[in-house]
Specification:
- The complex is a heterodimer of chains A (about 550) and B (about 200).
- In chain A, about 65% of the residues lie in helices and about 5% in strands.
- Chain A has about 550 residues and is mostly helical.
- Chain A starts with a helix and ends with a helix.
- In chain B, α4 crosses α5.
- In chain B, the strands form 2 sheets. Chain B has a 3-stranded antiparallel β-sheet with strand order 2-1-3, with no helix packed on it. In chain B, strands 4-6-5 form a 3-stranded antiparallel β-sheet.
- The chains are: A mainly alpha (about 550), B mainly alpha (about 200).
- The interface between A and B is large, with 125 and 105 residues.
């Protein structure tokens, strides 16, 4: 039903809005992460909380702060889940089971927002607000803080491994960036129909004589940060397909804008922090190229509607909403998997085979197109370092990136980073499809069944959180497995990034020489794009062949 | 050992920060949005409820549904909406799509069966039936149908209510929202709004 003209038009509007917002927000972010001054409210809270915001932390201290903060986040959210029935506004819902509470706690602290449960029948208003919404903010802020630390590490010269202060990064990100934007966005969403109340389901008598329970909840406040922080956990099971989360074509585009704006702005801020805007531009160009490619492919797949069921029905509308249609659903799907969001406005399990394959490939890229807030930037920079290393090998010179030498230790850290998530994905899928408890969760047999399992471990390990919903994942087996994938998929790479930031911060700044590969030119953009695609291709082609590719060809 | 000690120390600091963040982000922020919503958009914030005459209300006892949530519509005198995988159909306590993949035999069979039912009900050939009429939506609460599916149902609804086809077609137009700015989303017909208008027109006739 979608037409080509409007499909291109809505992407153009989105790109135009981003082109205005990204430089402004990017400049603001750079200031937030480099300014020595604290706001009065920040100074007061540091005093009350007894943290020193001016201590320039060594990378080990910074990592321990990240891990300590995240650890209490997991414990607190686990406790809220287990105690839910005793909390106010619980709507009469029972406590979460142990494996479910573990999965959800890890899921929201790692910015994944994988959901084994159905929001409207499992989680009360207080846990939504004070448990899940809070982690939507702070898990995003943690990712951005680590990316800022990495950028500062590259910018510094002989700084003895010191990369900044985690607490100041965290508090500033929340107070100066996320909270103000989320407040405005939440009000815009309410005006357009997103609900915001603390009501129990309201029973109405319908036109044809039946009854219907109209659900409520503090949805707008959560919806805003869910997109802005690339979290993605829906208030309701149907996520951003639910009319109360996403009522109009305009709210849909607005939500896509929110989930893309910070990841792109972080690249812009990076250029400013390292003192060369062109470097940020190059990184942004690669993100935009990969995102644009995914949007084009996925939109083509959904509009062409290959496959037996779509051909029979006359269009790929299974699992899609009429107000969005194929094109807006494809735009959302490629943006949510290119960032680490995982919100959906269409059911990914019912995407066409090539469409679902693109969504999966997007996550396998490590979510760098443009990636999660913070994690997208540092993920892309890791690949950039790999790229200069490979280029250095080709011409036989010592590789360097932004004046920092890439030696054996550095490339060891980068290599481990790049291998961490694929190992989790491939070990995870192997465990899942050899265990009877794993197979029990699949809705379909054959290649599509493998895709359901592969999508789940890919989504969890890359902290995306979207799902092929046919998988019944609320079992102890899947909750435990995916919880582990999310935990290691978040913090293993993160610690490696902070360690590398520390090494860079301690190192000399070398002046560029004739042998330095310029990292702001189209040649580098092309090389980096190629490296990103080749790395994923080599790692994942075998399993993709067994899943979505086999399904496409059948 | 030193690392474990520092992890513990930073966890305590983290706990203090988390408590403060919970007060600000988990209590104050949603309540501020709630307060603003109560002032600027109380109707929307409470779920966009409408009465049998289409008037806005915040009282569920007077409401027939939400203007933006689809509801079961299986009356031959009214417009049908899309198949729904939410519970027994259009259940807001159980929102979801079917999640059947494009080659799932269950989905293929369901589409065939729906096509046969609609072809018989509306007395049209199968190739005229648009895709949204035979597929389940993502939320299971889709409030809309395509313009093509509404057009298909006009003759039946007109006959059942003693209205002319032109009259009903005008009601369809009134309930139709085009693409935003001509480019965003797809043209869609709000089924509840349309059915309320049909009932009012039938009562007046």
């Amino acid at each position: 039903m979608s037409a080509v003209g409007p499909a291109i038009g809505q992407v153009a509007v989105l790109v135009g809005a981003l082109a205005v917002a990204v430089p402004l927000l990017g400049r603001h972010l750079a200031h937030v992460y480099t300014s020595p001054k604290h706001l009065a409210v920040e100074r007061a809270s540091y005093r009350v909380l007894r943290v020193d915001p001016d201590a320039d932390q060594h990378w080990r201290t910074y990592s321990m702060s990240v891990l300590g903060f995240s650890l209490v986040g997991v414990l607190a959210l686990y406790a809220i889940g287990r105690l839910q029935e005793h909390l106010p506004l619980s709507l009469g819902f029972a406590a979460l089971p142990a494996d479910g509470a573990w999965n959800t706690a890890v899921s929201f602290v790692t910015n994944t927002n994988w959901q084994w449960y159905s929001g409207e029948s499992t989680v009360g208003h207080l846990m939504q607000m004070s448990g899940l919404t809070v982690q939507n903010f702070v898990s995003a802020a943690v990712g951005m803080a680590v990316a800022a630390a990495f950028a500062r590490g590259l910018a510094r010269n002989l700084a003895g491994g010191r990369v900044g202060n985690f607490w100041a990064d965290l508090v500033r990100t929340v107070l100066r960036v996320l909270l103000p934007i989320a407040l405005v966005a939440a009000v815009v969403l309410v005006l357009l129909g997103v609900v915001q109340n603390l009501l129990e389901p309201q029973v109405v008598h319908t036109l044809t004589g039946g009854t219907q329970s109209i659900t409520g909840g503090p949805v707008a406040s959560q919806e805003a940060i869910k997109e802005l922080g690339t979290n993605g956990g829906g208030f309701y099971n149907a996520n951003s397909a639910h009319p109360f989360e996403n009522p109009k074509p305009f709210t849909d585009l607005f939500e896509v804008f929110l989930l893309l704006v910070i990841p792109f702005s972080m690249a812009w801020a990076f250029g400013i922090i390292v003192g060369d805007k062109r470097q940020g531009g190059a990184i942004m160009a690669v993100m935009a190229l990969l995102w644009g490619g995914a949007v084009a492919l996925l939109t083509w797949a959904e509009m062409a509607a290959p496959g037996t069921a779509p051909q029979l029905a006359g269009g790929a509308m299974e699992g899609k909403e009429v107000r969005f249609g194929e094109a807006a659903s494809a735009l959302f799907a490629s943006s949510t998997t290119g960032t680490s969001t995982g919100a959906v406005n269409a059911m990914h399990d019912s995407l066409t085979a090539p469409g679902g394959g693109v969504a999966m490939f997007n996550m396998m890229l490590g979510e760098i197109a443009p990636g999660g807030v913070g994690s997208g930037l540092y993920g892309m920079l890791m690949l950039a370092i790999l790229t200069v290393f490979l280029a250095g090998l080709m011409v036989g010179r010592t590789p360097e990136y932004l004046g920092k030498k890439i030696g054996q230790r550095e490339i060891w850290l980068v290599g481990s980073y790049i291998l961490a998530t694929p190992v989790l994905v491939l070990v995870g899928i192997a465990v899942a499809i050899t265990a009877a408890d794993g197979l029990a969760g699949l809705q379909e047999a054959g290649p599509h069944g493998l895709s359901e399992a592969l999508y789940a471990v890919t989504s969890a390990s890359n902290n995306n959180g979207s799902a092929f919903g046919g998988l019944t994942s609320g079992t102890p087996f899947w909750n435990t497995l995916l919880g582990l994938c999310m935990l290691f998929g978040r913090f293993l790479p993160m610690v490696l990034v902070i360690a590398l930031a520390g090494r860079f911060a301690a190192a000399h700044h070398l002046p560029p020489s004739a042998g330095t590969l310029p990292t702001h030119q189209p040649l580098f953009v092309a090389l980096l794009t190629g490296v990103a695609l080749v790395v994923v291709g080599l790692t994942f082609v075998p399993v993709l062949v067994l899943g979505p590719i086999a399904e496409s060809l059948s | 050992m030193k690392d474990i000690y520092s992890l513990f120390r930073f966890s305590l600091a983290g706990l203090r920060v988390l408590v403060a963040m919970t007060l600000v982000l988990g209590i104050a922020y949603p309540l501020v949005v709630l307060g603003v919503a109560k002032v600027v958009a109380p109707w929307q914030a409470n779920g966009s409820l409408v009465t049998a005459t289409g008037a806005h209300t915040t009282d569920p006892d007077r409401a027939v549904g939400s203007a933006i949530i689809g509801q079961v519509s299986d009356d031959d005198a009214l417009f049908y909406n899309r198949p729904s995988a939410a519970g027994e159909g259009y259940d807001p306590l159980n929102t979801y799509g079917s999640n059947w993949g494009p080659e799932a035999p269950e989905l293929i069979q369901a589409i065939r069966q729906r096509q046969a039912e609609i072809a018989e009900r509306e007395d049209v050939p199968v190739r005229q039936i648009p895709p949204d009429a035979v597929t389940a939506s993502a939320s299971g609460l889709d409030p809309d149908i395509s313009v093509a599916y509404a057009d298909l149902q006009v003759p039946r609804v007109a006959r059942a209510n003693g209205l002319t086809e032109d009259e009903v077609r005008r009601l369809v137009d009134d309930a139709t929202t085009g693409r935003t700015w001509g480019i965003l989303g797809e043209p869609h017909v709000n089924v509840l709004r349309l059915n309320i208008a049909v009932q009012q027109a039938a009562d007046a006739a």
